[in-house]
Design brief:
about 270 residues; two-stranded antiparallel sheet; single chain; globular; TIM Barrel; about 40% helix; 10 strands; alpha/beta
Length: about 270
Amino acid sequence: MGDVLTLGDTKLPLGEVTYVMGVINVSPDSKNTHTVAFSIDDALLMAHRYRIWGATLIDLGGQSSHFDNPTIEAADEVSRTVPVIEAMVAEGHLVAIDTWKPEVAEAAVAAGAVIVNDTGGLADPAMRKVVALTGAAVVAVHIEGANPHEVANVEIRKDKAEHTAEQFRQLLSELESVGIDNVIIDPGIALSYRGDYVSYTQMQLAVIAESEHLHLLGKPVLIPIPRKRDGHRVAAYISLALEHRADIIRVHDVAMACDLARLFGRTQ
C-alpha cells in the first residue's frame, strides 16, 4: 500500500490515522436530511463546519443512492455537483464525488474533485476509462447489483469480509491491468438493500470486526458507517471501525466521528 494516499497534490500519511470523510448531499430527496445542502453557500458552510470538527475529506453526492428514490439524468447530477465542487476546491477542501455515472465523475474531476467514489463497484468500463485517464484516486465500493438503484436482497453470510476481500482481489488485478492502482476499497456495508434488515445490521458489524481481510489486500480501507436512527448505534459502528484501524471512515455524523477519532488516538 505504501505509506501515503495520494490525492492530487496532497499526500495523506497512512497507518496511524483514520481520516474522517464527511457526507454532504445536494440531492434534495436524500433521506439523511441533516446532510442536505440546498445551495452552494449551504454546502460551503457545512464543509467549513466539518473542517473545524476535524474532517479531512468531503464526500459530495448529487444523486440519492437509496433504491426508493428516482434515478436522475447524469446532466442533472452534474449541474447539482460541479458548481459546489468548484466552490469547495477554491476553499481548499479535498472532495470526493459520490456517483456511479462516468459522465458525472469526469465532470467532477475536471472541476477539482480528487476522488471518484464509485458506488457502481468500478464494473463499468466507461468509469474505468475516466479514472485511468484522469488519474484520480478511486473508491471501489463492493455492491451486489449494477448500481445502488438496481439491488435486491443482500447475501447474508458469516464469512462476508473474507468473501468480499476475495472479490476485491480479483477486481484489483483487473484494475491494475488497465493502469488503475490508486484504489481505496469499501466493503459497501452502508448501501441500502432489500431484505432482512436485522440480519444485515449484524453482518455490517461483523464485516468491520473482520476487516483485517480487507487490509491484507494492501490498499487503504474505507469503512462507510451505516446510518442508523439511534445515535448510540452509529457510535458503536464508528468505534469498531476505529478499533480495527480503518484508514478512512465515511460518515453522516461528523462531529461524533471526529471526537471518537481523537478519543481513540487516530488523529494526526
